[in-house]
Each structure stands twice: as C-alpha cells, then as structure tokens.
Amino acid sequence: MRTRTLRLEPVVFHTCNAIAMLALAVITLYPFLNTLAVSFNAGNDTLRGGIYLWPRVWTEQNYRAIFAGGTIFHAFWISVARTVLSTVLSLLLTSMLAYTVSRKEYVFRKPVTIIIVLTMYFNAGLIPYYFLIKDLHLLNHFLVYIVPGLISAFNMIVIRTYMQTLPEGLIESAKVDGAGDFRTYVSIILPLCQPVLATVALFVAVGQWNSWFDTFLFASSKQNLSTLQYELMKLLSSSMNSNSSAAVANGADPGAARNLVTPMSIRASVTIAASLPILVVYPFLQKYFVHGLQLGSVKE
Amino acid sequence: MASIEKAKPPKTAAAATATVPQPSVFKRMRGQKQLMLMSLPILAYVVLFAYYPIWGWTMAFQNYKPARDFAEQEWVGLKQFRFLFSDDAFLLVLRNTIAMSFINMVLGFVTAIVFAILLNEIKNKLYKRTIQTISYLPHFLSWIIVTGIVANSLSVDGGIVNVLLMKLGFINEPIMWLSEPHYFWGIVGASHVWKEVGWNAIIYLAAITSIDPSLYEAAEIDGANRYQKMLYVTLPGIKSIVIILLIMNIGWILEAGFEVQYLLGNGVVVDWSQTIDIFVLKYGLQIGNYSLATAAGIFKTVVSITLIFAANTIAKRFGEDRLL
Amino acid sequence: MGGSPSKKLWGSMSLVLALSLAIVGCSNNGNGGGNAANNGAASDPANANANKPANAANDGGAEQTSADLKPVTISAFIGTPNQAPTADNRIYKKIKDELGVTLDMEFLVGDLQQKLGVMIAGGDYPDLITADPKLVSSGAVIPLEDLIEQYAPNLKKNYAAYWNRMKDSSDGHIYWLPNYGAYTGEYHATAYSGPAFWIQKDILKEAGYPTPKTLDDFTKLIRDYAAKHPTIDGQPTIGFTTLAYDWRTFPLLNAPEHLTGHPNDGGVVVDNGVASVFADKDSAKTYYKALNGLYNDGLMDKEAFVQNYDQYLAKISTGRVLGMFDQHWNFQQGEDTLVSQGKIGQTYVGFPLVYDTSIKDYYLDRPVINLNNGFGISKDAKDPVRIIKFLDALMDEKYQKLLSWGEEGVDYMVGTDGKFYRTPEQRKQQEDPTWKLANRAEAFYGAAPKMEGSYSDGNATSAGTQPQEFFDSLKPQDKELLTAYGHKTWTDFFTPAPENPVYYPAWQVDLIDGSDASVANKQMSDASLKFLPKAIMSKTDQFDAVWNDYVNAYKKINVKAYEDRINEQLQWRIQNWAAQ
Fold first, then answer.
1. Per-residue pLDDT tens for B179-200?
2. In Å, how far are B52, B292, C116 from C120, measured between CA atoms?
3. Of B34, B142, B226, which has the smallest distance from its Cβ to A13's Cβ?
4. Could you tell me where the Low complexity compositional bias lies (chain C) (predicted)?
5. Burial (0-12, 13-18, 19+ Cβ within 10 Å), A9
6. pTM for this prediction
7. Interface confidence (ipTM) of the complex
8. CA distances from A40 to A52, B242, C313, C333, C450 (A)
9. Using the beta-carbon criterion (under 8 Å), do C340 and A155 form an inter-chain contact?
10. pLDDT tens, C40-66?
C-alpha cells in the first residue's frame, strides 16, 4: 500500500478511526478519573455532588485511612504471592490440558472436554464446597488461595481454540522427529501460544488479585493470611457501618467519626488502591497480544 | 477470495488424518500415554473440586437448615421448584433475564469485535497501546461506582445526558430515564458495554495476532481493499474463537447478573428490572432459604446444558468450530 | 460479554459475592424500620436504685483478677464490619496488662447471614460470637444464666431489669448479652435520631416559628415557602422528597403508623395488643394521597423514587430540600455537610406530625433492650468461666469509662464539678478514624455488654449524651431557634415517651428464616415499592384506581401468616415478660 500514491481514502479512514478510538478512550477514561478525583476529595464535600475530573476540597485522608491499620502491607504481599503462584501454575496446567484436548487423535478428547466445559454451568453451592475445603484441611491455609481454582474451563477452551488454529504440520514434523507429546507441547506449542497465554495470564491474575471471597469464607480468622482486597473490603464495609447503622442510632457517640471520610470517598480510594498494582502489570503483558508474534518466521 | 480460502490455517491436514481407518481404541491408548498423563490427573482434580460437591443439590429437595446433619434434614420433594414456578413474578423475571442477557450478549460481542478490529487498524503503536489500556480501565471499577456515575449522568437534575440532548435540541424537557420501564434494558446493556468493551476485546486482539500476515499480502495482491481485508481475512481469522465464545455465552443466557439491576432498578421499573438472581436473592438467600437458591441453580443448569448442546449441534451442522 | 473470565469455576460464587456488596448493612436493619428509635427521654425507673456506687459488685471482679491472671486469648467474631485495631492499641493493651486477656477479633466483611450459614455448616466457632437466632437453633451457643448468677455480679446487676426478656422464647435459656438498651441512672436525651417529619429551620424562622402539628400544617408551610422561594442558592426548590432505595425504604413506608399516633413498630401497628399491617389500609392512603397532591402541585421531588442513597444525600446537602419524612441518622451525613458549609438555616428540625390534633403523637419512645444482639459464648469456648469473668470485670465502672470515654487527662478532662468534658483538641481527635484505631476500643465496645445512662458519679456514659457536650455543639442559630420555641433540646419537640408496652417493639420479632411470614414480608414490601410510587405520581383523578390495584396486590399475599407470627410472639411476650 505504501508503494501506491497517497490516496484520500486511507487518510480519511485513519483520521476517523483515530478520532473514534479517542472518543471511546475519553468515555472509558472518565469513570476512572472521576473515581480518582473523588478519592482525593473531602468526604463530606463529595456528598454535595458535582465532582467530575478534579477534587474540589483536596485531602489525602481517604488514603490515610487505608494505611492506618498497618495490616495492609503484609496483605499486599500475600496478594502478590497468591497472584503470581496461581498465575504460573494455572497457566501451566490449563495449557497442558488444553493441548491434550486440542489433539484430534486423543481418545479421551471428547469426554475430557465435556467434563471440563460443564463445570462452567453448574454451581454445587457454598455449603458442600465449604465441607470439601474443610475435609482437605485447606481452611486457614495459604494453599486455599491456590489449589481450588487452578483450572478454569473458560481459559482452557480459549487456549485450546487458539492451539487449533496453529499449523498442524508443525506437530506432525515434531512427531516425525521423534518428539513425544510432552516435548511437543513444551518446545513447539507453548512458545507459539504466547499471545493467548498472555491473555489468559491476565485473566487469571486479575481474577486472583480481585478475589476476596475465598478469604472471607476460608481464611478470615487468620490475619496473616489476609489479602489486600479483603483488607480493603473490611475498610469499606466498616466505613459504611459507622456511617449508617445502629451504632449511631443507638446513641453511641453521635458526634464521633462521621463526616471526615464517607463510604463514597473510601470506596473511591479503595478502588484506586486495589486496581493500581494490577494495572501496572498490564503493559508488560500487552505487548504479546497487541503486536503478537511473527508467525511467518516459524512457518513450515 | 479463492486464494484466501486456500491460505486458511490448514485444517485439511487434520481432516485427512481423521478419515484414515482408525486402529482400535486400546491400541490408540497405548500410543497416547503421554497425553493421558498430561490430562487425566488434572481431570481428577476438576472432578474433585467441581463435581464432588454436587451432592449439595439434594438441598433443593429439602427444607435445608444449616445446623442439621444430612440425615436430619426435612425432605420436601419438589416444593422449592413449585414455589419458583408457581409465582406469577417468575415468568416476568425469566423474561427480563433472557432479554437483558440477550441484549448484553449481542451488544457485548458486536462492540468488542468491532473495537478489536478497528484498534488493529491503528498503525501508531503507542497510540494503539494507550487506547487499549484506557479502554479496559472501567473493568476494574465495581458496579456500585459505575451505576453511581450512570445514575448521575441520567438524572433529570442536571445529568449530562439530558443536558446534551437538550442543548442539541433533541428534547425539550429532561427525560426521566430510570423511571421509564422501556429504557431499562437498554440502559443496562449500554452500561455493560461501557464497563466491559475494552476487557472483552482483549481476547479478540490476541486472536488477531495469530492471523498469518501472508494472508493479508495475498489479499492485497488479489486487489482487496481495507474493508475487504477486514471482512475476508481478519474476521475469518477470529471466527473460531467468536463461535466458541458465542456457544459458551448461549449457555449463560439465564445469567444476566443482578448487581447492576439491583443498583439501577427501583420500584417504578421493577417489572422490567428484576432478574432470576434478584428473585432468588430476595426469596432465597436474604431469608436464609438456601434450598430455594439451590433449586433455582439446578433449573439454570438444566437450561444451560440443554442450550450448549443444542448450539454445539447447530455449529457442527454448519461445519463451524465446536465447543465440545 | 464475550470474554468475561469471572464466569469460570470460581465465578459460580459471583452471585453471593456481589450480593454481599450490594446489601452490606442490611443485617443490622433487617426489619426496615431500623432500630434508630432507641433514644428515649426518660431514665428507666426499674433501674433507679442501680444508681448507688457499684462497690459491692466489684468485689467479685477484684477476687477474680488476683485468682487467675494467667494470660489467655479469647477469640471473638463481631457481626458488624469494623476495622481491626492497631497491634499496639492503647486501650486493648491496658486490658491485656490489667486483666490478662488478649482479644483475637474477627470482623464481618460481606453478608452476615452468609457468614453464619457457613460457620454453622462447618461447626467451628470462636469463643465469643455475635448474636443471631440461627446460632441458638443450631446449638452453637451455651446457656449463660447459671454462669452469670455464679460468676458475674456486675452483669447480673446490669441486666436485672431485663432478665425475663433475655430468655429465649424457644427454651427459656439466656444466650445473649444485649449490647445496647440496658440503662442505669439518669439518661439525658438531647439529640434526636429517630423518625420525624423534618423541615428546614429557615422556613420556621420566616413563618415566625410556628409549630406544625398535622400533616396539613406541615404541607402548608412547605407550599408557602416554595411559592416564595422558587429557587434556593440558584437551583430549583424541592418541596418534599423521600427515599426507597435498597433496604432504606422506611422513609417511604413508615410515615402512616406515626401519623395515626403509633410508635415505631416496623411494618405493623399494634392496638390493644393486636398487631395488624397498615400499608394497604385507608390510614396509609390518606398520607399517600397527600403526597400525590404535592406531586401534582410540582412540590414533590420527581426523582424521589429513582434516586439512590448517594443522590438523596447530595440533594439534601445542597440545602434545597424543604422537608421529608425520615429517621434522623439516615440523612445525618447530608446535614453534616450543610453544617460544614455554614448553611445552618437549611438544616432540619423534626416534628411529630399526626393526622389530626385529637391524636397524640408517639414518635419518641423509651430505650428498649437490644434483644438478639451482643455476644454469646460458643460451645467451643474452652473456659467459659474465664470469659464471663472477663466480661464481668469490664462492667466495672472503671473499665466502662475506659471503653467509652478513654483515659482521664488523655481522652477527656474532669472539671472542678466532677463532670467529664473534652477539650476541642480531644473532640477533634475523636473524629479521626486513624487515631481511633490506635487509641480506642470501639469495635469490641460496640458489641460488648455496657452501661448506658449515667455512672454512679452522675456523668453520662458517653460523650454524646453528656448535656454540656451537647450544648457546646449548638450553633447560634440553633440556640436562637430553641429559645424561640422555649425548648432546651431537640427532643422537647416531641411528646415525652410513655412507658413502653410490654410487647414493644414489634419489629424485634424474628420472622424465622424461610417461613411463610418472612416470604410475605418480602412480598409486601415489593408490592409497596412498586405501587406507591405509581400512585403518588398518578394524575389526581387516577389515584384511587392505582390504589385499588395496590390493595388487590396485597390481597394475593399471605399477610395473615406475617401478622400471625407477630401476634403469636407479642402474646408470648405479654405472658412471659409481664411477670417481672
């Protein structure tokens, strides 16, 4: 295309496209900027409404509340640990499983696929699940963050679908060279799957990072297992509690602790604090699925 | 067009091996020890964590009380299901759930795919990456924040949407968006798009990277213009993942969620806003009736599994990629 | 929706996950009416003689401290969301040093019912556990009456007047130590946080400080003021608003019971000991018809039924809402914002309106014991005696002061007259949540048994109820207004609370999870939230038709199951509680 003389159409297209994308970016950036502004605005002032992109009454109070208890740093590292470990393990196991069901000749391909896929569509319920975790002695143990969620059917299908688009000849030739399935998977398939692995890694990492419900159910009585999200949830719910509920209603110190921080402002600072660390990861993964691989170079 | 067809990822090789007469299952198993080792332990793990707890479904046929042993539970047969299906409100919430789920699905797919393809056309790498990073930010905001912003934007009391529409002369007086039942589904759909379009596009962007660049070159030689390339190279390149995701999503047709509807809904639009999950929340979980929640879960599972098998069969008949 | 990975294996839990987000706070106010009405005026006469020094009772505590001071850790689950105190918290440290007890507390995050359900299913409990009827029926907690009789003289004295009420209606044992409502000595009600019709102070001032007694008086004041002031601070005036969002539905639903002269019984009114639902009766219709009138005159907030809680507060804090019916604590944040902007004239005074002057208002009620709340001791507790002795030791006035006021000289001062007060700096400190995590034991104190009213030295049991602290917080405009009415405090606008009926309040009745009564309760509130806005926003001549639809919708609901459950419990209370 470059070789041709400059035509009007590409210019018009690229300009329109760039503008459309910019418009999209503006409307999707707004809620985040708004949250950021609210998080730096005094709680009682935010209540009046009308905070858009910039704080009106500047304060760091909403963030100070997050660090006040001193538990947040330990919880942060627990979150990092569970996220990294889960992502690595989950990626390995899920992609390995995906490889086997991508092999058309595999005798158990269909039953394995069906058994895994169906897990997306039912929910046994919380109570039997709790018993299982208890029987496995995972309660109040770090492994409860890692072990139960390693395989996701959704992610497996995504990886499998990607693997099926790879040129079959690659595998055939590896087999001819005498490579077994495991070696084919490790040395031929995995390197080619970088874009989809990066995508799935992002899904797993974000899911792990954002999860607090497992802490709530299975590890809530152990402070040293608390995660960042759980600590932030605690803060958020306690701010809602102190502002609205029976504590005030029952005449316990009506003058105390309203006003300075409100649930709305805490929610904003908590949201920013919770998502910033994971947002930082994104650009590192992004290069794999925005620009991709030059598949041509490995083609047969 | 013809050359593009030929250049598609060579499925033909696989198809060829499939037609060769197969040795017996046991013989093939012997050659697949590694495949079995790589998958069956993981399968056992999944069965343990996902299937074993299904004994909990017995709750749907009980009047479950958490403190009692299994043997002491009171068995009530199909009572919970009867409560579910006999309530006049249930048909209504079923309709709302399917409608909103369908709207979200269609809007979600179309916007994410279009966004991914258009973003792919951006040549400036920095611009492209910046736009993409920004677009997925709202995914990290909770629904309570997003619905708060939506409610404020739609307010008759200086909300940006009404202000804009009035300035542009489309309307003379502000519209009460959130108290008009017929707008509710659309507002929920638009909110979903706003929050998730960037996130949903990630998977398609990854798929686009797997398209062989030589296909574009071939198309160019054939004289295809930009739009033809999008239509005949990019789109077919991501077709398999689109179809697989579509089949999976059809299975989730009864999962319209409840948070956004709970947070945006109100008494005035309740006949259009309530979903199955809200119904179950109110009459099940909030009043400690776990049995009703379980019964609703079983109902949803039956519908889901029926639908995905149906969708899978249809995909098979049309020769498309299959989920199963 | 294509690639949402939340829908994977773990995603199965997403329903409950986000649900708990959405309804955080519900658990405290399950009955909609909230328990905000507890700030009664008078002291409890039953406790009049409890005013004498508590030395006699302290002997038991002193004995215990010398006998077994060996350090012990007591685990506790607290059913309200709180932040964990810092590791070096001053108050907890003092408790540890002096009583040998380390508290290992877990606080609620998410939904209480969910948490308890799982806890019960798993069968593991901490030593101290937050109250819930479920825990009794599942045998998770042990009876306390013998322990208290034997080891806890201070607790026994604190609860003496309520002993019968604390007995469980199913088996007659005492399982819980209520955390609020046990009054000792004189109780000074100054601020009012309960239900009322609220009106801006500016309106009263402009009209020459009238006292609206009926709904008509009230709406007339609003009409007149709105006509004169179509905008406030440049924005359109809102005559009247209400709220029906999430669990905060009482601003819309509870007004009729008060207008007919009944106290806050939640969803029922009780006449002659018999409870009946009022929401679909003519007594309610009169009120909503009046709102319909306001609506058609353009005085009712158009967005009232659509707005969320944040929007409601935002509107109030702009100062352009002339009036509403609500419980004070529910909109207090909005009012605080007005105060911080110096808009004192746009803050509110509450009036106890009735339909006509022949009806006596009953908004203000006396404190009621907070049954089915507070701590119980679980069956897993290794040393219940040590635990009850610990709680008893904390009931000593010395520790009560430590928990409520803090340390003398640090958190409060003692005047020459012996009265406690806080300096402005100390008061400011109390507003800093970060400081409080290191210097107060609020989380535990909130759930623990406590003295309320006043200590033996006459000081109020909390800074908020110390009269001088209250008067110091009044603004000049407030003083002017109170003087104009000849009142000293905000509660003086209300008829003093009569003695509570023995069965009061009906909203404390446990409807029993999953019963027909609790299903009916949900269905009724669904119907009200659906039809009442329609009725209020209808054209004047269509109001009756919509109202009829509403009444018909109620006919389809098993209202009787709900009423029967409440009446059964009220009768039980009359029989078992009257004895004391």
1. 899 999 999 999 999 999 999 9
2. 21, 19, 6
3. B226
4. 44-62
5. exposed
6. 0.83
7. 0.86
8. 12, 41, 19, 19, 38
9. no
10. 333 333 333 333 333 333 444 444 444
